[in-house]
């Protein structure tokens, strides 16, 4: 499965595994660099997916079928 086919949740799970491996400190330098590069790719993928969803959520259909901005009302 290519990175672009990963869901946000799958990419986050892989990223969390990479972070766990790097945090142990028992990873050889070359492997740590590979993990770091993979982690950066997954991080960008997750960020891109979040931006895409945010863009979709900022617009909703109004009663006439036109797109309009979607504003979230914060609780007071």
UniProtKB/TrEMBL annotation:
Keywords for this protein: Cytoplasm, Exonuclease, Hydrolase, Nuclease
EC number: 3.1.11.6
GO cellular component terms listed in the entry, alphabetical order: cytosol; exodeoxyribonuclease VII complex
Enzyme class: hydrolase
InterPro entries reported in the protein's UniProt record: Exonuc_VII_S, Exonuc_VII_ssu_sf
GO process annotations (BP): DNA catabolic process
Catalytic activity: Exonucleolytic cleavage in either 5'- to 3'- or 3'- to 5'-direction to yield nucleoside 5'-phosphates
UniProt keyword GTP-binding present: no
Subcellular localization(s) per the UniProt record: Cytoplasm
A molecular function GO annotation: exodeoxyribonuclease VII activity
Domain of life: Bacteria
A Pfam family this chain is assigned to: Exonuc_VII_S
Cleaved signal peptide residues: none
Main function: Bidirectionally degrades single-stranded DNA into large acid-insoluble oligonucleotides, which are then degraded further into small acid-soluble oligonucleotides.
HAMAP family per UniProt: Exonuc_7_S (MF_00337)
Similarity comment text for this entry: Belongs to the XseB family.
The protein's assembly and partners: Heterooligomer composed of large and small subunits.
Protein name from the UniProt record: Exodeoxyribonuclease 7 small subunit
């Amino acid at each position: 499965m290519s990175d672009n086919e990963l869901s946000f949740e799958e990419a986050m799970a892989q990223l969390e595994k990479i972070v766990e491996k790097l945090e142990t400190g028992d990873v050889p330098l070359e492997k740590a660099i590979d993990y770091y590069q993979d982690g950066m790719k997954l991080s960008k993928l997750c960020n891109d997916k979040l931006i895409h969803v945010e863009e979709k959520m900022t617009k909703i259909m109004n009663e006439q079928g036109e797109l309009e901005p979607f504003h979230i009302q914060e609780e007071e």
